[in-house]
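Lab notebook, design round three. We kept the backbone fixed and only want residue identities now. Task for the bench partner: fill in a sequence for the structure below.
Input structure tokens:
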């Protein structure tokens, strides 16, 4: 459920007509809904009620400061994958004590930053990272709290680029060797073992891979306990899917209901790291039709948003719903490829879409709140889009549209 609805044939973001927002703030434009973000966060929080738990929003899905602030105010934790994301969380008022740090290539500088901030846990993904973490923590006179992110070798049955839990993925430590790593970590002065984590992929539409992964992780928890290594928390990762087209995603409540029989009696704090399921349908990308070209065989609607604004179609061949912001009966229904102005044939937002549109019409790409703006680039020297957050009948600019000066900031001519 989200708060983008048609009222009298006009798409609204909460109580504001999207066309009015676009008139004021221009296009391409990301529009977020605060109520939707809050609703999705609460869905996870409530699904785990009664268990000691922490919902750590995966910052890379949408890292706008106002998005992070909205969630921080609800008490969210955060899953970060870089020092930059940690600084964003802190800038937005997030609690470092609720941050877990994932990622396979943490640098020494990032580790120092996180130790200084006092984050809750490092999700360690390799032996070399463990050694670096131990050495860095000891130099700083600290102990790093860690969980190993184990790779349970289960197939998440999602797109190969967003599947992370198979043996041949680069993520996590092999579950078969994790026990030996825990043993090593237990002997390190700079390390305090507090948990175990896994995250098997993104846009999962079925609960069974979660259950398979959990069984393997719980078997490891028991083997560790037999060695005297006891844990405080279990991080079940993120990855719940959303509806882009005809998918039937699992609701947080269904997901939790399926997992809870295995979790309720463990006595461990439960962490989860949802990104897409919180931010995905809390945002749309609004774009204007620049012109229409083509012939009877092929029609293109050329719009002012492109792959630099929204990479998912190009990168994952993702299908995203594209709808006119104002339903009109003046234009004839035709089949279009909706494409951006970038000099790449891969620059498309949607293919073979039935739309009744004309030049200057506004379109909305739905469910663009996650992995939208955060994957944006300046390719073709295109300034990145503005971002606004709607809150009831208020519209707040949460990131100004970039200017030419922003594009060349830091660049220098030769003497
Ligand atoms: C990306 C990521 C997530 C969030 O995944 P979603 O599919 O957006 O829920 C969670 N945990 C880790 C370690 C990640 O890399």
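Proposed sequence:
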């Amino acid at each position: 459920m989200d708060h983008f609805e048609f009222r009298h044939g006009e798409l609204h973001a909460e109580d504001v007509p999207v066309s009015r927002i676009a008139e004021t703030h221009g296009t391409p434009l990301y529009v977020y809904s605060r109520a939707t973000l809050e609703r999705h966060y609460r869905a996870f929080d409530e699904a785990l009620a009664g268990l000691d738990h922490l919902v750590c929003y995966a910052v890379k899905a949408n890292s706008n400061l106002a998005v992070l602030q909205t969630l921080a105010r609800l008490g969210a934790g955060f899953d970060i994958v870089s020092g930059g994301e940690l600084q964003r969380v802190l800038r937005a008022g997030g609690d470092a004590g609720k941050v877990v740090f994932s990622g396979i290539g943490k640098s020494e500088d990032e580790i120092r930053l996180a130790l200084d901030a006092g984050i809750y846990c490092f999700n360690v993904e390799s032996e070399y990272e463990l050694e670096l973490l131990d050495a860095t923590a000891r130099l700083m006179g600290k102990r790093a709290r860690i969980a190993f992110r184990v790779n349970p070798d289960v197939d998440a049955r999602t797109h190969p680029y967003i599947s992370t839990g198979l043996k041949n993925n680069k993520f996590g430590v092999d579950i078969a060797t994790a026990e030996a790593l825990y043993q090593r970590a237990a002997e390190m002065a700079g390390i305090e073992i507090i948990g175990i984590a896994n995250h098997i992929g993104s846009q999962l539409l079925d609960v069974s891979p979660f259950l398979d992964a959990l069984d393997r992780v719980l078997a490891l928890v028991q083997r560790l306990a037999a060695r005297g290594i006891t844990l405080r928390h279990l991080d079940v990762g993120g990855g719940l899917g959303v509806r882009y087209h005809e998918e039937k995603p699992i609701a947080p409540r269904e997901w939790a209901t399926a997992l809870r029989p295995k979790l309720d009696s463990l006595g461990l704090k439960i962490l989860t790291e949802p990104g897409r399921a919180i931010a995905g349908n809390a945002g749309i990308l609004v774009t204007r039709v620049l012109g229409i070209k083509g012939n009877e065989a092929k029609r293109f609607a050329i719009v002012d948003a492109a792959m630099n604004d929204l990479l998912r179609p190009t990168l994952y061949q993702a299908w995203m719903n594209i709808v006119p912001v104002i339903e009109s009966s003046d234009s004839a229904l035709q089949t279009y490829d909706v494409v951006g102005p970038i000099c790449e044939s891969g620059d498309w937002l949607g293919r073979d879409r039935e739309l009744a549109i004309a030049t200057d019409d506004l379109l909305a790409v739905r469910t663009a709140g996650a992995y939208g703006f955060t994957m944006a680039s300046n390719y073709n020297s295109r300034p990145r889009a503005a971002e606004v957050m709607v809150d009831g009948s208020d519209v707040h600019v949460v990131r100004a549209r970039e200017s030419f000066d922003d594009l060349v900031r830091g660049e220098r001519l030769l003497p």
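Keep this in mind before ordering anything: The pocket of pyridoxal-5'-phosphate is lined by residues 58, 60-61, 79, 81, 102, 199, 202, 237-240, 273-277 (CB under 6 Å).
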